User: Fold this.
Amino acid sequence: MKRWEPRRVLQMALFAIPIIAAYRTGWYLWMNYGHLAAPSKASFFRIHYATDTRIDAILVGCALALAVREARLQGLWRRLETAAWFPPLALLATLGTIAWATQHRWRTETFGYTVMATASSTLLLAILLQPQCWIARLLAARPLVHLGRISYGIYLFHAPLLTGLEVKLRFSAQQIEPGRYLPVFGLLVLGSVGAAALHYRVVERRFLALRAPRPFLSNSRLAPSD
Assistant:
């Protein structure tokens, strides 16, 4: 099969992102007809966990990776490299967007996932373009770097650990008593980080060692595509 050009793939991703957001919104409207402001648990599980309703977040990241290599955008990236306001504004926009989108579940389960992914990608772009900004230096702290290294394992293990805690301690994460929140949260954090660290050491590093070198991850600016 003929190799697709990066610009063509970027166009396809940008086209698909709003389509998927609209598709997800359609699922929400259908599953919550008559009670749109109070979504059902069934709609949460269908929308939150299904690939077809969440793939837009991955596509936003793919689009960003392709956009930074796009030749026609290099002038914009060069201007943003020297814009002192860009990283703090991107951080404020990300935090504000997440707070706004998660304030009500109907926002999150419709277009919220898309706008949160877009805002987060903007923050990543700011860090990529200005690696010496204070946000990048903060994220370069050793504990945060370690958490980032094992973050996939945390993502994998926190959900089953939470389910196990619900069964063992006989509570519901949806309706947890205020007095039990901090102990449960502490157990979940310790268990997730511990399991992820063990998984990284025993499993992930073995497969990472088999991976071929990736010169495009050097500290230099990514070469633009034609």
Q: What stands out?
A: The two ends are 20 Å apart (CA to CA). The mean pLDDT is 91. Residues 1-134 form one domain. The chain has ten helices and no strands.
